[in-house]
Specification:
The chain has about 210 residues and is mainly alpha-helical. The chain contains eight helices and no strands. It has helices at about 5-25, 35-45, 60-80, 95-110, 115-130, 130-140, 145-175, 180-200. The longest helix is centred in the C-terminal third of the chain and has 28 residues, at about 145-175. It is globular and about 50 Å long. Pfam families: ER_lumen_recept.
């Protein structure tokens, strides 16, 4: 494992923990898109079905279980535990506009036309756009809490670091995965506007990501 993958995984984990702690400590999921969290839960579920068929390493298995568990815990907190604080009116992005095209693309463009491989490809494509409901929600409200911006920052950092991971693996391991690289580039691009505002305006930023 190279340093870019390790730090990418840790950034991803930090983003998830930040979000869970925010919801639990404030007893509120205000400003959080439940639809994005459902999509991420779907991403991890379809990607890590190989937990039932193969074992790679203790680290690999542990991280997969943590991602799946935290994803569903987040969905539970938003839609059940703190449902009264959920802003469904602003969280109005149509998930089917992402899931259906991504599902079709996964069936058409994949490494191998098998059940698990198609689901893995579906998860890669879906992860690249799963944050869109959250960004759309922020664009409608015009602002985001500081803790939410930290969550988005670490999530975007995770994807950016994974791009360097793919570059490292290509040069030092001869490994190249066009599907993962292109999807990662798409996801990173979606965060570019946010990264700019985060760095230039700091913690108290008012995000108008899709208004500009």
């Amino acid at each position: 494992m190279n340093i870019f993958r390790l730090t990418g995984d840790l950034s991803h984990l930090a983003a998830i923990i930040i979000l869970l702690l925010k919801i639990w400590k404030t007893r509120s999921c205000a400003g959080i898109s439940g639809k994005s969290q459902i999509l991420f839960a779907l991403v991890f579920t379809t990607r890590y079905l190989d937990l039932l068929t193969s074992f790679i390493s203790l680290y690999n298995t542990t991280m997969k279980v943590i991602y799946i568990g935290c994803a569903y815990a987040t969905v539970y907190l938003i839609y059940m535990k703190f449902k009264a604080t959920y802003d469904g009116n602003h969280d109005s992005f149509r998930m089917e506009f992402l899931v259906v095209p991504v599902g079709g693309l996964a069936c058409l463009v994949n490494h191998d036309f098998s059940f698990l491989e198609i689901l893995w490809t579906f998860s890669i494509y879906l992860e690249s756009v799963a944050i869109l409901p959250q960004l759309f929600m922020i664009s409608k409200t015009g602002e985001a809490e500081t803790i939410t911006t930290h969550y988005l920052f670490f999530l975007g950092l995770y994807r950016a670091l994974y791009l360097f991971n793919w570059i490292w693996r290509f040069y030092f391991e001869g490994f190249f995965d066009m599907i993962a690289i292109v999807a990662g580039m798409v996801q990173t691009i979606l965060y570019c506007d946010f990264f700019y505002l985060y760095v230039t305006k700091g913690q108290g930023i008012s995000l108008k990501l899709l208004h500009r």
